[in-house]
Amino acid sequence: MKASVLTDYRHLDWQDVPDPTLTASQVLVKVNYAGICGSDMHIFHGDFHPRTTLPLIMGHEFAGTIVDLGSEVKAYKVGDRVAVDPIAWCGQCPACRVGHYPACSSLALLGIDSDGGFAQYVAAESFMLFPLPDTVSDRHAALIEVLSIGFHACARAGVKSGDSLIIFGAGRVGQCILQAAATLTDNSIYMVDILESRLKLAADAYDQVVPIDARQYHPAHAITEFTKGQGVDVAIEAVGHAQAIEGQTPPVAQCVDTIRGAGTVCVLGLGDDPVPLLMKTLIWKEARLVTSRVTHGEFALTIDHLSEGHLKPDMLISATLKASQAQHAFDLVDQCPEQYLKVLLEIEH
Predict the structure, then answer these.
(1) In total, how many domains does the chain have?
(2) Whole domain around residue 111: which residue ranges?
């Protein structure tokens, strides 16, 4: 089969590779579309070394059609369209024993810890599969994983009807959190970023969005003004590697400043730098500080919302290129991040 292979950091080749070998519990998925994730960009740059080993077929956001079945697989048949949840957990560690799989001590993902969806075919365990209705297109199906991250973050934060939110970061994940949150509350959702184009994208799509350009306004001060000093119910940090802005504390600290008493802060931005946090403020507010990592079964919920037309997947897609053009696609995202939110790769067969 053909696959886009990361043969060296920053270098991808569309080349022949061996076909996957199925075990009895696996299915063979013919991949239709795969999405380029922020994590893929980090892998591309070598930031996940030594966790990732080369050569590697990246891609953990993908969906396709079953073309072969292992002998033990009974719940699916050849021809079924499926989304693939790339997560595999050990089932034995303390987190797994209490059913909290995203915190598995040896959590592994297709496309990161083993070959993934930037290929014509992928072998996946049957428990990773979620059936797709005809109302969800192949292109939109490739977004189910990242949209599910938005729903998981909202679940971890306990977002409910009537809640007001502030989301720091209007990138790929931030936009997905917005879409998930908009299915739960019709109250104001404040979006913070330094890229006007991403703030405009969110505000144009949702009337409840109030954009805050962090280069022009101090977000915490703006929230004090907008909410008349009360603060928001939930603050979510989806920035990760934050660009320092003179006179402002990092986004996580600002999350604490912007919530009301007994509010919730949810952090999922994977930054590497220590964050100064005044715990006294968090304690005075008797607030909750939680984190969110990947997903925990939200694929089915996301598929339902996509099928019912409650989400806006097209607003996320900046471009679609052939998988044989993966090098060009990664270069575009790398060099012009403000122009490319989500790039899909169409897998050629």
Answers:
(1) 2
(2) 2-132+312-346
